[in-house]
Amino acid sequence: MQHPRQHTISNHRISLLRFLLKYGVPVTITVGLCYMLVKGTDLHEMWHTIRTECDFRWIGANLLLVIGAQVARAARWRLQLRALGIKASLWVLTLSVFGTYAVNLVFPRLGEIWRTGFIAERHRSPFTTVFGSMVADRLADTIAVAIITLATFAMAGPQLMSYLGQNPDRISGILSLLTSPLLWGSIAACTVIAVWLYLRYPDSKAVSSLRNIWKGLWKGFAVITSMRGKWEWFFYTLVLWGCYILGLGCAFMSFPLTAEVITQHGFTALLVCFVLTSLSMLVPSNGGIGPWQWAMIFGLGLYSAGIPGLDKGYMTSFANLALSVQTISSIILGLFTFAWIALDKRSKK
């Protein structure tokens, strides 16, 4: 029989391991990719390029459009919450979105949980219901990115296939995993066991708790199909992603050589870089730092052959500045959000 003290130590080790896997891996990836990014790069030359080449008026326009996208996200989410009987103000929801991006910089993927908890606590609503509406919000983003990606594939298939072809072993590994009989057999077995437990012990505490959680998630998720203002919701979705794409276009216009990419290759080149950087956010990292720059450098590299001077150093300078400005703005807006929440709570007390 295991001694209680040994059992406690074992639990602490498991908790530490989970913490390291959840937060240590993204930090390690971020630091590693950033190191590879600056390795062999002349930092003085990079700063000189930014200082002499960048038109910061376009960067300002980029920031305004990114903030506009976040406000559109809050407005879209408000429609879903209102259909659930949760009357949150646009101001509070916008602050919750600002806070989400700030939290994700420190704890990747935890920002959405914080946003759900903040709104659920503030409006005394079930966490699972609010979380379900947030899941629907994120699913809509996934579908939007998929549509943009497919459209970009249609217009610039060779460039994107070249990008995917950089890691043929990894792609074949993913395909073999998706077609593995072991994977689908395990999923089928787990499904059968779950259904059997549900039917065999319908009144058990665990099954009741899971049933309540599922009902809350489904209620928040399915409201999008029955709520009023579907066309308004669709409009906010278009505004959201339009702001992101146009914002990246403004960033391109801030440097002469990246602006030349759009001049020579048109809107397709911008979409290719947008898709690559969007897909890079799937890599676990702090706020996309590291993967985002690499994806941008690769995307620009597809069109650099006919543009003298658009080398890796120049592309690195552009990518670092574009993401750094957004990261700094997320930190500032996040600090403002948390300060407002603290002052609001104090005033209510």
UniProtKB/TrEMBL annotation:
Topology in the lipid bilayer: Multi-pass membrane protein
InterPro entries noted in UniProt: L-PG_synthase/AglD
Subcellular location: Cell membrane
Keyword Cell membrane: yes
GO cellular component assignments: plasma membrane
Broad class of where this protein is predominantly found: membrane
Listed transmembrane segments: 20-38, 58-76, 88-107, 143-165, 177-199, 233-255, 267-285, 322-343
Record bears the keyword Transmembrane helix: yes
Alphabetic keyword roster: Cell membrane, Membrane, Transmembrane, Transmembrane helix
Protein name, per record: Flippase-like domain-containing protein
